[in-house]
User: Which sequence fits this backbone?
């Protein structure tokens, strides 16, 4: 099927995030194909002690934060996380509009030296951000807000779209998502990727995808959802 007639866009994000992404894809005139390859497992946070601010590296960390923290400033990695924090009742939300490094720089520029920070992140994630914050003199308390596991098999929606050759593009919002897709993709479906554009949020994610026979691999200019969708 010629690329111009392919309208499907594969969305591989966890189900909690996929619905919003699907709406944005549809608003751009494409047909969203929701096929999460990662599964989100929320946790709750019961922090002890006093803090000066909250740091969040994902929108998925916000639901785990208790209401008692909403009077504190919250520093968010990007616009989606910032929006979720405002919805949760946080009064002061600062948006790093980037990645973990941007978030650490925002903290250094906006918070007092030695500030006590509650850092909400995913299981086995956030080491680089925590190290950067600590290096800049902040007192960091880490809290696991959620865990993500890989799906056991590629979702049927993805298999059907690949078999029908209706996909124009596949989106990958993290290197972990890309790795899960590569692992789950049946060998027999690899030839179906030759007409599909892989759109990755980072060079790290693109490197994971590179061994597969994509039509081409594009990397977002910014590590954001909007940056990825701009390349469809």
Assistant:
């Amino acid at each position: 099927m010629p690329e111009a007639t392919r309208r499907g866009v594969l969305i591989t994000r966890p189900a909690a995030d996929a619905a919003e992404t699907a709406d944005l894809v549809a608003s751009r005139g494409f047909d969203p194909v929701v096929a999460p390859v990662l599964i989100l497992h929320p946790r709750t946070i019961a922090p002890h002690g006093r803090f000066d601010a909250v740091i969040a590296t994902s929108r998925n960390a916000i639901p785990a934060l208790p209401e008692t923290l909403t009077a504190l400033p919250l520093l968010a990695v990007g616009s989606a996380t910032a929006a979720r924090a405002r919805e949760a009742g946080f009064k002061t939300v600062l948006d790093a509009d980037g990645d973990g490094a941007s978030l650490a720089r925002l903290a250094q520029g906006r918070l007092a030296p030695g500030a006590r920070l509650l850092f909400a992140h995913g299981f086995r994630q956030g080491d680089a951000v925590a190290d950067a914050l600590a290096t800049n003199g902040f007192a960091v308390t880490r809290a696991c807000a959620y865990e993500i596991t890989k799906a056991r098999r590629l979702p049927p929606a993805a298999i059907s779209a690949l078999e029908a050759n209706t996909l124009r593009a596949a989106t990958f919002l993290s290197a972990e998502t890309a790795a899960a897709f590569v692992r789950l993709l049946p060998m027999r479906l690899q030839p179906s990727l030759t007409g599909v554009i892989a759109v990755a949020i980072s060079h790290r994610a693109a490197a994971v995808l590179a061994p597969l026979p994509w039509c081409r691999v594009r990397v977002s200019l910014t590590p954001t959802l909007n940056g990825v969708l701009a390349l469809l």
Notes: Residues 39 and 149 are 5 Å apart (CA to CA).
